[in-house]
Amino acid sequence: MDVAEKLPAGGFVLVDTRRRASWEHGHVPGAVHLPTADIPSRAPELIASGTDVVVYSWGPGCNGSTFAAIAFAALGYPVKEMIGGIEYWARNGLPVETIAGVSRGKPDGLVTAHAS
User: Whole-prediction pTM value?
Assistant: First the structure.
């Protein structure tokens, strides 16, 4: 929820580190798509050195964002992980973007951090 509250002017770049098919299935609006394997070669051209980065992947059962964070840290970027990934982003009723546009689901009362 910290990420959602600070977007879009949070002073960081939000990076979706999943593969293309997962990105197209749904991602956080405004996120940059940069798969983990491409971080070493593409991050410097997409994100200015020294910029704060927040990475996410699928969800709490996926360690993809951890590997992405390590890759960004190796390049010298200040980096944090968005724990819960896109799964909990969506389950909190936050906007998800696909080729069809942006939509919001109903917040899941078992996981949402929103006050009812």
Answer: 0.91
